[in-house]
Amino acid sequence: MKILVINCGSSSIKYQLFDMEDESVLASGLVEKIGSDSAIIKHQVPDKDEKVVTGEILDHRAGLNRVLALLMSKEDGVIQSAEEVKAVGHRVVHGGEYFSGSVIITSEVRQAIRKTIDLAPLHNPPNLLGIDAAQNQLPHAVHVAVFDTAFHQTMPEYAYMYPLPRVLYYKHKIRRYGFHGTSHKYVSLRAADFLQRPLEELKIVSCHIGNGASITAIQNGKSVDTSMGMTPLEGLMMGTRCGDIDPAIVPYVIAKEELTLAEVKSMMNKHSGLLGVSGLSGDMREVTEAMFNGDTAAKLAIDMYVYRLKKMIGAYIAAMNGIDVLVFTAGVGENASLIRQRVCEGLTFFGIELDKEKNAERSKEERRISREDSKVEVLVIPTNEELMIARETKALVESF
User: Residue 247: what pLDDT?
Assistant: First the structure.
């Protein structure tokens, strides 16, 4: 079975075509600058040079049409006909309280996704555009929505509710939803498989640390708490997002700096975090290099970043009354050995003992980086959200 996974942004389409017989990637790519006459398609087939195509692509339907043409082309194609694509897995950022799992897309599902637009105004509209385009271009295929928020729908009420007047929840569904759910689910399954232990018996703290970052407490295979909230701004200090701050700072800064609410939202989302504190970059590699070169602001940014990570991990260990596995994933989690080392050095009280040599190894593989005598398994597991989407799509198609 061949499954196309697509992730649509406001002016982009990311895609991967899987052969689910062996879960291999037949082709992948990115369409950028949709809506212009200078759009770019980067198309990659394994063992071939990347193909770059530029030209006019005015909407997502035209973009997907160009993608399908590449997938079927004589020079760079991997399928003979669009009919070979049996299903399409769509990443949808926000499912609100409507969805606790992936679903086959129907008119009722589309309507529910529209109702959550206020919760994800930057993401759900382009996700719907992608669904429209794909259903138009691939009407024979089964289309499946896989939600970033669905995995966290198992959180108990006391974990997802905010201490605000409850009427705000009833009227506007203001509560914590969490994100990166597909990644957290994937790495928790891989952790259990790697350790050859039942997922239902494990207490896992999963750290998805990239430019955006979140931590999830996973107990018996279910998300019981997660650091992102109603929006992806809550929680950890990130590349450009501030994470948790005193909410009274917002009106205070508006008054003192004579800023609009939109300007403060932009400041907290795009100009804070590592970038805001270091004054240099939101890229962990650049900030780390600056720290080693003696930049004191960069050092402070790293110190704050690590400290907040340790605090959140400790909080989730308390929430589950223990921990069996600590997982690092995503760009920073998989590649920044210094961050992993400094975080784990502050968690030895919980029985976490890092093997510094294993931690320092450069590898793209799943691996254990804890010492033999560590009471807690510490793992690095590369995430694969696209494969998780493909797997969930396949499971629904086979049960359809």
Answer: 96
Give, for 304, the enclosing helix (H) or strand (E): helix 296-320
Query: Active-site residue numbers?
Result: 148
Q: Which whole number is the average pLDDT over 145-168? A: 97
> Edge-to-edge, what's the strand order for the sheet holding 203-209?
222-226, 213-219, 203-209, 325-329, 377-380, 367-368
CB 204 within 8 A of CB 191: yes
279 in a labelled binding site = no
Q: What is the mean pLDDT of residues 190-198?
A: 98
The reply, when asked if residue 273 is annotated as ligand binding, is: no
Q: Please state the φ and ψ torsions of residue 384, each to the nearest 5 degrees.
A: -150, 80
- Residues 214, 106 share a domain: no
When the pLDDT of each residue in the chain is averaged and rounded to a whole number, the result is 95
What predicted TM-score, i.e. pTM, was given to this entire model? Answer: 0.93
Task: Determine the straight-line distance between the first and last CA of the chain, rounded to whole angstroms.
Answer: 14
Please tell me whether 335 is known to bind a ligand. yes
Strands 325-329, 203-209: parallel, antiparallel or unpaired by DSSP?
parallel
| CB within 8 Å of 394: residues ≥ 6 apart | 1, 3, 20, 87
Residue 118: the pLDDT is: 86
User: Taking the CB of residue 360, how many other CB atoms lie within 10 A of it?
Assistant: 12
Q: Is the dihedral of CA 106, 109, 115, 121 positive or negative?
A: negative
What per-residue confidence (pLDDT) applies to 400?
Answer: 76
Q: How far is residue 392's CA from residue 5's CA, in Å, rounded to a whole number? A: 11
pLDDT value at position 233?
93
- Looking at the domain assignment, is residue 399 inside a domain? no
Side by side, the strands of the sheet bearing 24-32 are 51-57, 36-44, 24-32, 12-19, 2-9, 85-92, 142-147, 103-104
Angle between helices 249-257 and 261-270 (to 10 degrees): 120
- Is 212 annotated for ligand binding? yes
Judged against a pLDDT cut of 80, whether residue 200 lies above it is answered with yes
Q: Which residues contact 256 (CB under 8 A, 6 or more apart)?
A: none
Separation of alpha carbons 155 and 148, rounded Å: 14
pLDDT of residue 241: 94
CATH number of the domain within which 355 lies: 3.30.420.40
Domain assignment present for 57: yes
Domain around 56: 2-147
In-domain check, residue 178: no
| pLDDT-based confidence at residue 121 (cuts at 50, 70, 90) | confident
Percent of the chain with pLDDT over 70: 100
